[in-house]
Specification:
Blueprint lengths: L1 E8 L4 H12 L5 E4 L7 H8 L6 E6 L4 E5 L3 H7 L2
Parallel strand pairs: 1-2
Antiparallel strand pairs: 1-3, 3-4
């Protein structure tokens, strides 16, 4: 079961908007870290994902395991919410 979702985004990222819209449509809450507003968090996003791109979605489950999804990837995002 999902305990927490955090999305690393930027202001100009269309895929970030897609992830947020998808989660809202599913009625799923999330925390957003906008890297344009909090540039000091870029290193954290890179460390978590290994990628230099956004969105980075971090899904934390109740057992504290995490799944990291880079980009707007419904094939990974949809099953990770279950």
């Amino acid at each position: 079961m999902v305990k927490d979702i955090t999305i690393f985004t930027t202001d100009t990222c269309a895929y970030c908007s897609n992830v947020k819209t998808y989660l809202k449509a599913k009625g799923v809450g999330y925390n957003e870290i906008n890297l344009d507003q909090e540039p000091e968090k870029r290193a954290e996003a890179h460390r978590i994902s290994g990628a230099l791109t956004v969105p980075v979605t971090v899904i934390t489950r109740t057992d504290d395991s995490q799944e990291v999804i880079v980009g707007f990837n419904l094939a990974k995002l949809a099953p990770a919410l279950n």
